[in-house]
Amino acid sequence: MPSVPAAPATLPRYTAPMQIADxxxxxxxxxxxxxxxxxxxxxxxxxGGRLILVRDRQGDRGDARYGAVLVAGDSAVxxxxxxxxxxxxxxxxxxxxxxxxxxxxxxxxxxxxxNPADLVRVLAEPGADxxxxxxxxxxxSDPAIYTALPPQRPDEDDWEA
Length: 161
What we know:
alpha/beta; hypothetical protein tt1805; 6-stranded mixed β-sheet; 5 helices
């Protein structure tokens, strides 16, 4: 009877704790938050990085609030909730720009939905365990979902103050 080779022993895998910067941006201020992210990551090595969009509604992107987690290596940059159609045309535009920026740098776009009550907590006080769960729960997503601007709402005026 031939002998079956033993399975190789596996060593416990050590992973360094993720380094998470304080959340960037101003809640509900999409353009300011986008600028804070782009400025913070200017010149950063994003090789192997990914953009994870965190939204507050399952199955309803039309009025969703988004925050973002940008992961590169053992570091993560987290934004406050400031992107998406919930914040009007500027929110949808900032989400589109962030997605285009990440895609242009070869970063895959992923998405996860969290309970609306948890969105602010998860993004305002990001702990390594919580961010690891967000990353693990994320799914690949098509960037075109976020770059196509929704139609303008009837209550949105084109006037400037």
